[in-house]
Amino acid sequence: MTRAARFGAVLLLVVAGRATATDAPAANGPLAVTRQALEQSNAIVRGSGDRQQKLLALRDVLRDFLDTEALARLAAGKHLEGRTPEETAEFLRLFRELFIRTYVQRLLLFDAPDFTYGEERVTGDTATVGTEIVTPRDRFAVDYTLRHTESGWRATDILVEQVSLAQNFRAQFDTALAKSSFQDLLELLRKKVDGAAAAG
């Protein structure tokens, strides 16, 4: 399995892990919010209902937990500079839909692994929650970067073995935009979103 494939597989497991913890997190703190999202996702994956019902429920959980706009802006980096408000809005919408649809559609392919919590580190309105995924053959360190917003703590990036999800997307966007225009990128994202929707 290539590193890119391994990275993608682990990211899917991040959302579906079976969570355990030795220390109770502060109520409504970043660790508590992360654990709640993981436990809700795991309960959905292992619960009753057909595939479509589970996909809809998982999308709701992810929309509440992930700050996809922050992820999108980190991933786009300088490529959003000078774009019209309409282009920026379109990119943010497409990124959100692609991210959520792609990962929740594949989520149900995995059995829930063991998922343990590490340290919660809070600095002002940002935080990092350390976790670890434990499968029969591997252990993966996964850190969530969170930001405190008006609606509470939301994840703005995920690092798997110190590899940033946002930076991984940025590398892909950098490569695409080195060869084509921003409008071409938007068209590519539209096709991916439509493909993910059809697969769901």
- The sequence of SSEs as H and E is HEHHHHEEEEEHH
Oligomer: single chain
- What's the main sheet like? 6 strands, mixed
Q: Output the radius of gyration.
A: 17 Å
Question: Residue ranges: pLDDT <50 for 5 or more in a row?
Answer: 15-23
List the domain count as a whole number: 1
Question: What is the assigned CATH homologous superfamily?
Answer: Tgt2/MlaC
* Average predicted confidence as pLDDT: 81
Shape verdict = globular
Number of strands: 6
Query: Termini distance?
Result: 25 Å
CATH architecture: Roll
User: How big a fraction of the residues is strand?
Assistant: 15-25%
CATH overall fold name: Nuclear Transport Factor 2, Chain: A
Percent helix: 55-70%
Put simply, the count of helices is 7
CATH class: Alpha Beta
Q: Which structural class matches the secondary elements?
A: alpha+beta
Instruction: Give the strand order, joined by hyphens, for the main sheet.
Output: 1-2-3-4-5-6
Describe this structure as you would to a colleague.
It is a single chain. The protein is of the alpha+beta class and 200 residues long. The protein contains 7 helices and 6 strands; from the N terminus they run αβααααβββββαα. Helices cover 56% and strands 22% of the residues. The longest helix has 23 residues. The chain has a 6-stranded mixed sheet. It has one domain: Roll (Nuclear Transport Factor 2, Chain: A), CATH 3.10.450. Helix 4 crosses helix 6. The protein is globular.
